[in-house]
Amino acid sequence: MTLRIEIKDLAKHFGAIKAVDGVSFSVNKGEVLGFLGPNGAGKSTTMKMITGFLTPTRGTVSVCGHDVLTDPIAVKASLGYLPEGAPAYADMTPHSFLKFIADIRGLSGAEKTRAVDSAAERAQIKNVMFQPIETLSKGYKRRVGLAQAILHNPPVLILDEPTDGLDPNQKHEVRNLINDMAEDKAIIISTHILEEVHALCTRNVVIANGKVQFNGTPHELEAMSRYHNAVCVAVDNADADKFTAFLNDLEFVGEVELLAAERGFRVYPTSGQQITAELSQTIRANGWNIDSLYAENGRLDEVFRTITTNSTQGGI
Ligand SMILES: Nc1ncnc2c1ncn2[C@@H]1O[C@H](COP(=O)(O)OP(=O)(O)O)[C@@H](O)[C@H]1O
Ligand SMILES: [Mg+2]
Fold first, then answer.
1. 55: Cβ below 6 Å to ligand 1?
2. Does 309 reside within a domain?
3. Is 80 helix (H, G, I), strand (E, B) or coil?
């Protein structure tokens, strides 16, 4: 594992507002870290400090071994950054904008042409390269921002809500692009969109009120749901009271819930364990005929509310 980003006890206070308040985590090569949290949680502020656009009130940031305070130029050279809203110069074309960014990145000659071409290709903006940016749709503007971020093929990418405002097809394309780049980079994406936890992320950090509330894999996040490994089961001609009593008697069953008409029962394990095989065998062995039976993975929206609502106004 190669450590690419390490932040320790990072804080940013704006007067009395503690936008970020003691955040620590690290990101290795090959990881796509999903940075999640409600509006105002401190995601963008954290990203601005990692990229050197805001000076921390407290704490340290290291990118590819370079400290953002003592070595800001090396940090900026090591990373690509898609800021919130993806600002770009509206009256430039993507072509002139990317060439301008390439100049800033110190590229010239054939290398510059190749970098612009390759970034445009990967971000799928080749068909709008000579159209003023202000005339482009939101999806294209976002992808121009992405092309800018990946132009110099940096080892670290910091992408602030890269799929915000995109339609489902555009989201799909941007996720594919990020997945394609994931292997040899360390990537942080902030997002509100819970489906991206699985579509994109290898790990998640959830923040609320400027503090880390969770740091773990998507699977671990899902496993915090009360629905994790609960089994929904429907049987033929069941007397609801009798079947409920039968389920309640099983030692691996914690709780039984009667679902709305015809949909059967939801059976919770005693302590989050998998019970599908055992449950279906026991039901059959006792002479019931199973109509349907499936386990739930867990519900991310419920987990998010639980993790983030004690401390915040907004919700995801
Ligand atoms: N320049 C600023 N001055 C004062 N408050 C700010 C500034 N930037 C952000 N904040 C506040 O800091 C908190 C975190 O904001 P932000 O990092 O943008 O959250 P997120 O990106 O998670 O939505 C919010 O309460 C926001 O209003
Ligand atoms: Mg933000």
1. no
2. no
3. strand
